[in-house]
Automatic annotation (TrEMBL):
This is Patatin. Keywords: Hydrolase, Lipid degradation, Lipid metabolism. Residues 13-195 form the PNPLA domain. It comes from Paraburkholderia dipogonis. It comes from the Bacteria. PANTHER family: INTRACELLLAR PHOSPHOLIPASE A FAMILY, PHOSPHOLIPASE A2. A motif (GXSXG) lies at residues 49-53. A motif (DGA/G) lies at residues 182-184. A motif (GXGXXG) lies at residues 17-22. The active site is at residues 51, 182. GO terms for molecular function: hydrolase activity.
Amino acid sequence: MDEADRSKPFHILALSGGGYRGLYTATVLSSLEKSLGRPLAKHFDLICGTSAGGLLALGLAAEIPASELEAMFANDGKRIFGARSLVRRVIGKWIVAKHSADGLRSVLTERLGSTTIGDLKHRVLVPAVNYSTGKGQFFKTPHMPAFETDYRRTLVDVGLATAAAPTYFPLHRIDGEGVFADGGLVGNSPGFFGLHEATKVLCVGEQTPVRVLSVGTMTLGATLRGSAGLDRGIFRWGSKVFDLVISAQESAVDSMLTHVLGDCYYRIDDLATPDQSRDVSSLDAVTAGATNVLRDRGAQAARRTLGDARFSVFKSHLAAAPTFYHGPNKSAGVVSC
């Protein structure tokens, strides 16, 4: 990080995964951006996003209006979660993924085109799991000299990698990189990854206030009914394993960021009421009921946030232009830590 920027606050936007429930996140972002009157990305020094949140992070970093990203979920949700052949309708999620990736790929291609990470003018971090290595992999803009490869990757490829949710979508192969699974397996709520990137990679010092704005997806706590059987095999677990993973991660990261950052951590999220839970309980539920719940609650969450004095620091902050070391937006700079 440049010396001139060391005393300036460093703001991180962290967007959680949640399938179609990303419409809630997109609605919040759209409302906030409308109030701010400029691209939301200009207010953050780093944008992190996982799965559905990764798609939104990439879109924001490309300065696609948040209202268009909201429309992507609301208008194209059935294309994303509806590309199913007869085989997938009959045996989907038991033997093959419930949905084909064709719908998601076509929607992302229409919105993002051939844009690469190197074309972005704002720092991003998007988690995925490289199933070829068995490790988490984080796609990043070239904001460090060592980040020499990710900038060549298209946003479509990165989006398909971070959103390849087990049992919902097929794994995604990126030639020369490996086969990828959903970033939610390593970190569905990426705020801690962003904090680590700021303090340990970009060398933001202790004298620099670091703040995290996290936006959830009305993620439901994955729980078990009292009458449910406890002896469970593959068929009884199904996609519920993935739901449990992301639910447990969300609560853990929320607790830890609250402990570490205190008032410098602000989270936007809502709990669905029992009635609303019936509409949004599934990650791929694209119904009129789910759309209404997610948009209504997202709009109210944004209204609440804009009236909260704690949000004013995010509203007034404008990020400094980042230094990139590779790609079309390469700039001069020296890193010292």
